[in-house]
Amino acid sequence: MYIRKNQRDLTRTEKKRLVDALLQVKRSGKYDEFVRTHGQYYVPDAEEGPRPAHMTPSFFPWHRRFLLEFERALQAVDSGVSIPYWDWTADRTPASSLWAEDFMGGTGRTGDRQVTTGPFAYANGNWRINSRITDGTYLTRDLGRPSDPIALPTRAEVSRALSDPVYDTAPWDSTSVGGFRNTIEGWGTGGAERWVNHNRVHRWVGGLMVGATSPNDPVFWLHHAFIDLLWTRWQRAHPRSGYLPRRRLPASDPQAGRIFSLDEPMPPWDVKPSQLMDHERFYRYA
Hints:
Number of helices: 7
Distance between the termini: 12 Å
Radius of gyration: 18 Å
CATH topology: di-copper center containing domain from catechol oxidase
Order of helices and strands: EHHHHHHHE
Strand content: under 5%
Low-confidence stretches: none
CATH class: Mainly Alpha
Shape: globular
Number of domains: 1
Oligomer: single chain
Largest sheet: 2 strands, parallel
Structural class: mainly alpha
């Protein structure tokens, strides 16, 4: 078992080792395979086929396995590396050390939003975007979206989500009202509340973090490590509440065959949500 730390507590050496491992996984071609996997399984409500990754009850366990697979790729390069988490309720501005030159790099420049600082800047030759929806070959960001400002979620917003004792509710998609899963994933009701929590963080970072191929930005992993930590906090706060739906939906349900109940294997790993309820046999959070 290993430790996932708050990114703000990483030493300079730990940051360098993580960055070096990220760059090596990128050079090997494996990084882009993870980007393509996320893009393939990001299936919105209205699209046909199974929806394991987003707008679905399996949002948390699917991403837990996704992060574990990526962490194993990093550890194959450096066994001492793990994915740190970004607590965006505390580190809330582009001035955070997260965005420093020696770590994630900063926001994009005016105009094309190209990131020009840090180890993932295109000009440094280490981070070419190969799996994308847009045509650009460079990493883009628009931290805080200055032209139309957006704020990162607050502790109070997260606390409200954590207080919900119900894991998820029908119709098990982005329109579910109530339930911890959709409240954290962040499909809101429209207007100013259209994007909340997880989704608003993607919007706040902007650039390639918006959309199905968001792992093109390495901050994706730190964001989702915090989402995973929030799931563990919810589990501890509500020990009598569990994953829903527990049983396979009846054939008459519109979501039958599209979402994954507790013991239905999720692609692409053929692993059940029930196998991913307890993270502590793999890692713990500092």
